[in-house]
Predict the structure of Small integral membrane protein 22.
Amino acid sequence: MGTPSKDFGQELSDQVNDVLGRLASKDMFQSTWDIVAFAIFFTFIGVVLLMALLVLIRCFCCCCDCDSPRSYNKVPRRKVGIDNKAMEP
């Protein structure tokens, strides 16, 4: 049994050769699991890019009220309860 670095180097070399072989034969997807993994990966990337695009649109949107962006969240506060005069100095 070789050292772990040699095993890792050999495994990496095998993976690279496998990918290059698939590219040369133009047969990237050898099983249905390859197709599923590819679809899930690109769905994830698409969702991340869509979310980034929505954040950029929200940040740079000209149609929203830029002077008071949180004006719709302000609720008028009123005093609740009674004053405890014994607690005042």
Summary: The chain is about 55% helix and 0% strand. The chain has a mean pLDDT of 78. The CA atoms of residues 55 and 61 lie 10 Å apart. The two ends are 81 Å apart (CA to CA).
